[in-house]
């Protein structure tokens, strides 16, 4: 039985595992008939992940949820490779940047993005605080990348895969060129990495948004939560957030 | 060189690494001279962690930040021969899954519930409702898993349990009452069993479940004076809630106020306040002129104040709240003063500049004693023979914009 990844198409969380799989030489199938909001509410799915979120990786030995955990599993599936560093301290620093990019970058970027798409209550002070925290995180990352090509060591590790997938969502949705130009080393790092073959295969052509999505009016807030029709850009963005 | 963990005492995130160290048999030193807000702002510290947060582990080979990463590192020391990371690849992966789950779904939501109530983040009832809902959803999933599993993975304590129980501990200590957790009985069983294991007890000590949710922070409960010690949101919550709430000192109402014993003055403060409030047009010609006509330099004094820590004022609503809190605390002086506080600038750092009229020739002592914000500002007496200073007073009363070359974010009046 192959490894099967249950997710909707375009899920940034799934990308992490898929890029890791390219580097580790691991084959992953994406579950063909996955329907967001339907498949992940079935009893079989909830046995794999009781909170019902995606992505979930089904393996012959058992199921794994949480996108970073799945990526870690995939990175170790075929034994030794450079994704996890070549020493204990390198491994620890890979973990440090994985957590940092999830908590300091991804989480704040979502707090900026989600209310504007109507997924969470919008509040100007909360958004201001989220952007301020995001800038603080990017500032720290920028400092590190001024004198480091990769996050850890001298080649791509799992830290880069997770961080780039997180940044990719930010670049695509809320972080305009004007915003990211304050972090030039992060820009350098981002564009170099998304153009590596193993990233490009999974992410496609990375694009940076021209504008921040507007604050939702009451009309926009009434948008259906789980659309099943052909994705247009806005709907694709909705998919990026609803993990239920 | 031993392993050194830089953190403030009681940081529940630091507990993870220390407990793992007990299981692995590794020694970690925790320097007692760590000063939150000071040590972690030094260049040496920022070299270890550019974002300046804690905990940070210093090792002979390099440093590690992020509490879960530190715990993972520690768990693999001493040859890594222990059961903390599972006995197969799938077990390892599932340990990682629960570690991330408990950090993102549980700890993250506990923090978003607790933080705003303590005033570390903006409070909003709908946001809190969403957060509690998300937390319940996560605890429900965890409860389901723990109905038929003693530990998160396998049949003994792993890193997932260490991380998860430390995350839960923050919740039990601060916002999750017995009434709240009784909906998740398997989580309760799990939490109390694991936290009472010897290696946990050694690090965490006696654990008590909170009896009540902290009240929503009012302006009066805002953080006390020195902004340099103000903990950032992620680092602060480990300090127990009651210790952080500021006690508001009641003014001494019955003692005779020395200002009442001053010789009577022709200027009546309430007349000025009425003139200020009622002048709707030609403010300069009516209100400002009226002010200088009635001003009595013998019975009253004018003061400029400048906030000493403007570099802290990066976020607009936090700055406005700070000033608002100051004016709330000035309430005890309302009978004897009038003030204007201008928040200047179109982006951070915002500059806070004030103009105050006090009864008497000096800043009243009881205000200096009772209102701690006073020492956060530089105070200079206005020399009304100096036309430039007089003009500055007028501009501050009328909310002149631009003021000293800058836009006004806000102008608050105390009357």
TrEMBL record, chain A:
GO terms for molecular function: translation elongation factor activity. Residues 209-232 are annotated as: Disordered. The keyword Protein biosynthesis applies. Residues 1-82 form the GST N-terminal domain. It holds the Pfam family GST_N. Keywords: Elongation factor, Protein biosynthesis. Residues 87-215 form the GST C-terminal domain. Belongs to the GST superfamily. EF-1 is composed of four subunits: alpha, beta, delta, and gamma. Probably plays a role in anchoring the complex to other cellular components. This is Probable elongation factor 1-gamma 2. The gene is LOC104700903.
UniProtKB/TrEMBL annotation, chain B:
GO terms for molecular function: translation elongation factor activity. Residues 88-216 form the GST C-terminal domain. Residues 255-415 form the EF-1-gamma C-terminal domain. Residues 1-82 form the GST N-terminal domain. Keywords: Elongation factor, Protein biosynthesis. The keyword Zinc-finger does not apply. Residues 226-237 have a biased composition (Basic and acidic residues). InterPro entries: EF-1-gamma_plant (IPR044628), EF1B_G_C (IPR001662), EF1B_G_C_sf (IPR036433), Glutathione-S-Trfase_C-like (IPR010987), Glutathione-S-Trfase_C_sf (IPR036282), Glutathione_S-Trfase (IPR040079), Glutathione_S-Trfase_N (IPR004045), GST_C (IPR004046). PROSITE patterns: EF1G_C, GST_CTER, GST_NTER. Probably plays a role in anchoring the complex to other cellular components. This is Probable elongation factor 1-gamma 1 isoform X1. It comes from Camelina sativa (False flax). The lineage of its organism: Eukaryota, Viridiplantae, Streptophyta, Embryophyta, Tracheophyta.
